[in-house]
């Protein structure tokens, strides 16, 4: 199964690499063979970092969503619906709006996202403690709404810096350069490796605390370890790609559909599926942008992958809710 998913990722990366402005699909292969040409430099310095960002951020959100849904035992738990992602984006926006970190500082943005995401996650945890999953999800939605409102407030207060933070509000992998991934890439890769090594605990926690105790696994310590790992991945994704939605919500359902029960390969599978989904969302965004070329909007900015992901996420959420309502 992992081999098939790896092949799917290769196809998704190839498709995404063919699409974009500045280099036509037919020029991609010659540009790869001649990196010193104009098309080659566009490909290496603009398009490849965009695709790499989609792979890294998608993998991070896919794994984070799987961990959150398993540990919280809620099929609707995801980085955006637990408030962690929105809080991390709020940290980035505040740091930029008040010039606390340079906009090109990947380390500064990562730390801002991590601190704010941790604060948001702790707030939800302290608010509801270990109550039922529905209360946890409700608190997460409230946290996301509060963080979103705070973002709008900061934007109103610092409107002159609005243009520099808008990409984090929508969620986009466009416009990234290799230096943006210098720290975030290893951070996310390390987090995924740690969670993959601890992935055997996920099926144990999915059975509940009593089940974990019976198998000799301390549920509180295991839950904190996994939630911390998920938070680190969400912060890394938010720092480099902003408030991307849908990926963390949809990936766990797709992984369970592909693998059946959770197992040792669930985390790597979630990383691959998340990377494939975000690459496809970005590819679709590039196609729509290409269709709109010539309009006033597309001359200024491209359609962000986050907008495509948000629409797909809304449809997925509605279908999931309707499925739960069925007897």
The helix fraction, in percent, is over 70%
Q: Tell me the total number of β-strands.
A: 0
Structural class by secondary-structure content: mainly alpha
Helices, by number, come to 15
The biggest beta sheet reads: none
* End-to-end separation: 32 Å
Q: From the alpha-carbon coordinates, what is the Rg to the nearest angstrom? A: 19 Å
Average pLDDT, rounded to a whole number, is 81
Tell me, what's the shape?
globular
Q: What string, H for helix and E for strand, traces the elements in order?
A: HHHHHHHHHHHHHHH
Give the low-confidence spans: none
Amount of beta strand: under 5%
Q: What descriptive keywords fit this protein?
A:
327 residues, 15 helices, mainly alpha
Can you tell me about this structure?
The chain is mainly α and 327 residues long. It has helices at 2-18, 28-33, 38-71, 84-97, 106-128, 133-157, 162-170, 181-197, 201-206, 209-214, 219-241, 247-259, 266-291, 296-300, 305-325. α3 (38-71) runs antiparallel to α11 and α4 (84-97) packs across α5 (106-128). The radius of gyration is 19 Å and the shape is globular. It starts with a helix and ends with a helix. 46% of the residues are buried. The model has no long low-confidence stretch (mean pLDDT 81).
């Amino acid at each position: 199964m992992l081999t098939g998913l790896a092949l799917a990722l290769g196809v998704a990366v190839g498709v995404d690499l063919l699409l974009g402005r500045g280099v036509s699909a037919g020029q991609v292969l010659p540009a790869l063979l001649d990196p010193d040409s104009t098309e080659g430099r566009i490909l290496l310095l603009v398009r490849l970092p965009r695709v790499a960002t989609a792979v890294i951020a998608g993998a991070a959100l896919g794994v984070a969503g799987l961990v959150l849904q398993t540990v919280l035992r809620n099929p609707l738990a995801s980085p955006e619906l637990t408030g962690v992602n929105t809080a991390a984006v709020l940290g980035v926006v505040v740091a930029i709006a008040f010039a606390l970190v340079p906009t090109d500082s990947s380390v500064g943005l990562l730390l801002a996202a991590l601190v704010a995401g941790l604060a948001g996650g702790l707030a939800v945890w302290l608010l509801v403690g270990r109550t039922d999953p529905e209360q946890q999800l409700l608190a997460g939605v409230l946290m996301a709404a509060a963080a979103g409102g705070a973002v709008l407030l900061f934007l109103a207060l610092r409107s002159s810096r609005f243009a520099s933070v808008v990409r984090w509000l929508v969620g986009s992998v466009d416009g990234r350069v290799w230096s943006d991934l210098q720290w975030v890439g290893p951070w996310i890769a390390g987090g995924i490796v740690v969670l993959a090594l601890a992935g055997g605990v996920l099926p144990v926690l999915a059975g509940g605390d009593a089940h974990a105790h019976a198998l000799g696994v301390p549920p509180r310590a295991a839950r904190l370890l996994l939630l911390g790992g998920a938070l680190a991945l969400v912060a890394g994704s938010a720092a480099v790609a902003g408030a991307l939605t849908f990926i963390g919500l949809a990936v766990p359902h797709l992984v369970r559909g592909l693998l059946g029960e959770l197992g040792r390969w669930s985390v790597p599978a979630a990383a691959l599926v998340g990377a494939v989904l975000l690459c496809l969302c970005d590819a679709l965004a590039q196609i729509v942008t290409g269709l709109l070329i010539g309009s006033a909007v597309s001359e200024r900015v491209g359609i962000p992958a986050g907008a495509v992901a948000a629409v797909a996420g809304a449809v997925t959420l509605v279908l999931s809710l309707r499925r739960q309502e069925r007897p």
